[in-house]
Structures are given as C-alpha cells and as structure tokens.
Amino acid sequence: MARQEISIESDFITLGQVLKNEGIIATGGQAKWFLSEEKVLVNQEQETRRGRKLYPGDQVTIPALDFDALMVADEA
C-alpha cells in the first residue's frame, strides 16, 4: 500500500472531508454510513466520527480499499 500525502490548507481537515475529497464517498452525507460499514483507522485506531479533526502528521488508513494517507501542512 503506497502512502499518499494530503495537503491541509487550514489548521485541520475533517475525516468526512478527506473521504469526499479523495473520491471515497460521493457526498458528505455518506460519511456516517461509510464509517459505520468500513474499518477506518486514524493513527492506527479505529474511528467512526466523520467530524474527527485531522492535523498535519495524522495518518488515515482504510485497509479494505488499500488506502493510506498522511496529512501534511500546505506550504503555500
């Protein structure tokens, strides 16, 4: 599983926003359902809250989708 980097333009981004921005879900409203159906790990711990704030250095992993991403600060 190749780790990708996701740039955060503000102080944080929510888990629901990451799922939508990466095309894992089509709408923000699907986040709650997706998190209840799939194993989503934030920093190696299972997470079910779509509003979970992610900061630079946080890692999101979805084993079923072979998805692994590291949050990084936007340098712009």
Automatic annotation (TrEMBL):
Protein's UniProt keywords contain RNA-binding: yes
Keywords: RNA-binding
Pfam families: S4_2
Listed SUPFAM superfamilies: Alpha-L RNA-binding motif (SSF55174)
GO molecular function per UniProt: RNA binding
RNA-binding in keyword set: yes
Record protein name field: S4 domain protein YaaA
